[in-house]
Amino acid sequence: MDKYEAVIKLLMDAVKSESGSDELTIPVGVSNRHVHLSQEDLDTLFGKGYELTNMKELSQPGQYACKEMVTVCGPKGAIEKVRILGPVRKQTQVEILAADCFKLGRNTTPEMSGELAGTPGITLVGPKGTVETKEGLIIAQRHIHMSPADALKFGVHDGETVKIETEGIRGGIFNNVAIRVTETSALECHLDTEEANAMGLSGSSKITIVK
């Protein structure tokens, strides 16, 4: 064990001692298909200078579900009423479920949010216009948001991939769960609805990192 690992172990032991439990759990956030829009694409879809309507605050600070929705169209089919999440971003990003690829007729792969180079494009239809993106269609890679203090507590670092485990009749282990550490992150494991359903999880569930 090197010096860094020894320090992490001491800190984790202190946290466990203080909490009175060896179990360090992380709340689950279940995510359905959704869209993040750039201001340019928002203007095209809803009209010049349009501002998104905050309908509900999300668990991650500064992010919210919007009243507005769009239709996502592929070569073989379309999915209506796909929720937009705010605020606007530099680049439009469309996050779908794996099964949606069959309905849309457009294949994509799990990617981290914002890592859009080389991803396929898709067509979005709004009340005022249509946008054909050159890239930005992804299946969200499962990940855990946490602050630097959380990362220290769990003994992980930004960009690391870990295994997570959940109990219950459909419980099990997910591999390849990315750690995302920022100063403003709230502790939460993000899974899409297909992943959550596979393990019988909901927004009230908790997971643990497997060491």
UniProtKB/TrEMBL annotation:
Cofactor(s) this protein cannot do without: Zn(2+)
Pfam families given in the database record: PTAC (PF06130)
GO molecular function, one term: metal ion binding
Coiled-coil intervals, chain numbering: none
Secreted is among the record's keywords: no
Highest taxon of source: Bacteria
InterPro entries: PTAC
Pathway: Polyol metabolism; 1,2-propanediol degradation
EC number(s) on file: 2.3.1.222
Catalysis: reaction(s): propanoyl-CoA + phosphate = propanoyl phosphate + CoA
Keywords, comma-separated and alphabetical: Acyltransferase, Metal-binding, Transferase, Zinc
Record GO biological process: 1,2-propanediol catabolic process
Function according to Swiss-Prot or TrEMBL: Involved in 1,2-propanediol (1,2-PD) degradation by catalyzing the conversion of propanoyl-CoA to propanoyl-phosphate.
Family: Belongs to the PduL family.
Protein name: Phosphate propanoyltransferase
